Amino acid sequence: MSNIYKAFENGKVFIPFITCGDPDLETTGRCIRKMVEAGASLIELGIPFSDPTAEGPVIQGANLRALEGGITTDQIFDFVVELRKDITVPMVFMTYANVVYSYGSEKFISKCKDIGIDGIILPDVPYEEKEEFTQYCDKYDVDLISLIAPTSENRIAQIAKDASGFIYLVSSLGVTGTRSEITTDLGSIVKVIKENSNVPCAIGFGISTPEQAKKMSSISDGAIVGSAIIKLLAQYGKDAPDHVYEYVKSMVDACK
Amino acid sequence: MENSTNSKGRFGNHGGQYIPETLMNAVIELEEAYNHYKNDKEFNEELTTLFNEYAGRPSRLYFAEKMTKDLGGAKIYLKREDLNHTGSHKINNVLGQALLAKKMGKTRLIAETGAGQHGVATATAAALLGMECVVFMGEEDTKRQALNVYRMKLLGSDVIPVKSGTATLKDAVSEAMREWTSRIDDTHYCLGSVMGPHPFPTIVRDFQAVISRESRAQILEKEGRLPDVVMACVGGGSNAIGSFYHYIDDKDVKLIGCEAAGRGIDTFETAATINTGREGIFHGMKSYFCQDKYGQIAPVYSISAGLDYPGIGPEHAYLHDSGRAQYVAVTDDEAVDAFEYLSRTEGIIPAIESAHAVAHAIKIAPAMDKDKIMIITISGRGDKDCAAMARYRGVDLSE
Fold first, then answer.
1. In a domain, B4, yes or no
2. Residue A1 has pLDDT above 80, yes or no
């Protein structure tokens, strides 16, 4: 078991996402420290990918900006080493299968262990394909986070039973991005998850307001937000950290 | 252990289903429906009727006598997929998938397109079967192939210009996949090549296999024996796998796929995946991809919008690994020369994609014995490319 469980020890959690290197790693680092200061329990670090097929336009834009700035996987590993000198909250990478596979899956995952990354989220690796990654995740004690979607239906129990770290429940159909309304019957999905697993479950995709975060954390163990934070980065650039603090604080308070 | 025991649709190490969880039940539903209908007598009769009465199959296996004499070597036959309705092999797969989708109760087709051939074919099938249709096309390609955009609209489809990434074929695929995750119930993603997650590489191959099923019978009838070489161009690889499929077990038949080298495989402006790429995971499959050392997908280039894709279907990756098929690279210059050569020599204007296969034939046929037989698949007709070829030669055309 990795450190992820620690994030869920003190009640409901808020999990912010940030794309590493948008607009530069120095800004990403300051934002992450502000997220911790504002009370984020677990942080998702995005490693950019050229063709992020599960992302909406907002996070696609962040990936593009970061890659245009010349960011690489090795630079992000070095960056995490720096962060880990003072940041103790659990952190997970969110990226795409090819970033891991192309680096060498074992090399990538053992590196995660070395630098203090607790888990990885790969939105293009479903249950059927996970073993080629979990064989190394198990070896190096890094959690591969399982995703469950509104369309999972008969698959929910099986995915939940095999899950580790936390379960990422996708709130709606489609790609990442803010939505004014989330209509999926998430309560009944969470019920099936809880019947089959003790692993905590957080809800993401489409959440942007404190009201939505409050609602999602009331039916699960927490809320995950990406696009709304990336919008602050796109709007304020290097001046984003203070805005990120205010936003994350409001979301952390709403989740409690 | 490299691959999960749960993983389906493998060709050696390649293939699989690397897609968001949101789509998993959709591809499982598709696989179940396909496994049912592929053995269903009524479905197969309906499809054969569409192939023959609507698409104009079987396509001709034409003896290119002048080209054979001119090159002075192997006897050259052309498998004329360019004579199909809508002008390319794409209609084979589209009629199959659209009919399957209709049987599954879907009312809406979405598709990606590069040059527009697959988009036009999908729009055509949607019109015929009374289905809604939305085609995703890179914004760059909508400009390069404005006439095909008009054709799709004429056929009743919506065309969505894709502005993300490099605004070409790979981005159109990404956007179609995104659209499918947001609307699954009534929508079938009519993927245009032997790529993407299982079961697409198998479904598309099976519908395109009509090419080699016919050519095998045709060459046996004309020559009384199997060919020595079968050749086709490869982007994602649908016309090539269709051309190869019924010869795979005939080890004496040499299979050659012709990739787009663009300005050369020693430049960055290339789309030759087998010759310049390495193994990776993208667009739902494990296969070979043009990418940098960190796995970022490379912007690729070819004069042919239909071959301008950074990956290749997983079954081709396997045929390459096993040595069963050979994959060669053909440059823009060579393809344009071949485009003009076939037009001049045989009075057949091939698609610039198909011209890549013709170009390789021009290279190897002269050195082959006169009793050898070669089949080249002409995957499509070249009308769509005339304006671009004229520009390549410095002629300014206004349509």
1. no
2. no
pLDDT at B1: 37
How far apart are the CA of B282 and the nearest CA of chain A, in angstroms? 7
Q: How far apart are CA B304 and CA B154, in angstroms?
A: 24
Q: What is the mean pLDDT of residues B214-225?
A: 98
pTM of the full structure: 0.96
Q: Are residues B291 and B147 in the same domain?
A: no
Same domain, yes or no: B96 and B108: yes
Look at residue B399 and tell me whether its pLDDT is greater than 60.
no
Cross-chain CB nearest to B3 (options A127, A132, A170) = A132
From chain A, the residues in CB contact with B282 under 8 A are: 51, 98
Smallest CA-to-CA distance from B358 within B232, B240, B243, B226 is with: B232
Long-range contacts: B360-365, Cβ < 8 Å, 24+? B360/B231, B360/B256, B360/B258, B360/B328, B360/B330, B361/B71, B361/B76, B361/B231, B362/B71, B362/B337, B362/B338, B363/B334, B364/B73, B364/B74, B364/B229, B365/B68, B365/B71, B365/B73, B365/B74, B365/B76
Q: Does B69 reside within a domain?
A: yes
Same domain, B260 and B308: yes
B124 with B244, same domain? no
Count how many domains chain B has: 2
The reply to whether B216 and B105 lie within a common domain is no
| Residue-level pLDDT at B398 | 66
Alpha-carbon distance A51 to A66, whole Å?
A: 13
Is residue B399 included in any domain, yes or no?
no
Nearest residue of B to residue A59 by CA position? B164
Chain A CB contacts of B280 under 8 Å are: 98, 101-102
Q: Is B354 a catalytic residue?
A: no
Residue B177 touches partner A, C-beta closer than 8 Å = yes
Cβ–Cβ below 8 Å for B284 and A128: no
Of the residues B204, B224, B246, the one at which a domain ends: B204
Q: Indicate if B269 and B181 belong to the same structural domain.
A: no
**Structure tokens of B276?**
């310049």
Whether B80 and B123 share a structural domain: no
Q: Which of B296, B179, B206, B185 is nearest to B9 (CA)?
A: B206
Is the CATH number 3.20.20.70 carried by domain A3-145+207-255? yes
A59, A78, A121, A128: best mutation site toward chain B, by most B Cβ within 10 Å? A128
Backbone angles phi and psi of B233, in degrees to 5: -80, 155
Q: Do A103 and B23 touch (CB under 8 A)?
A: no
Mean pLDDT of A227-255: 97
Do the Cβ atoms of B7 and A148 come within 8 Å?
A: no
B13: nearest CA in chain A?
A132
Q: What chain B residue is nearest to A52 in terms of C-alpha separation? A: B174
The CATH number covering residue B97 comes to: 3.40.50.1100
Supply A74's token pair. Answer: 């090795």
Best of B18, B170, B185 to disrupt the A interface (most A CBs within 10 Å) is B18
B280 in A contact zone (CB under 8 Å):
yes
Query: Which residue range forms the structural domain that includes residue B73?
Result: 58-87+209-392
On whether both B263 and B200 belong to a single domain, the answer is no
Q: What are phi and psi of B241, to 5 degrees?
A: -65, -35
- Note the pLDDT tens digit of each residue in B75-124: 999 999 999 999 999 999 999 999 999 999 999 999 999 889 999 999 99
Catalytic pick among B75, B90, B102, B106: B90
Alpha-carbon distance A74 to nearest alpha carbon in chain B (angstroms): 9
Residue where a domain terminates, one of B180, B204, B228: B204
B18 assigned to some structural domain: yes
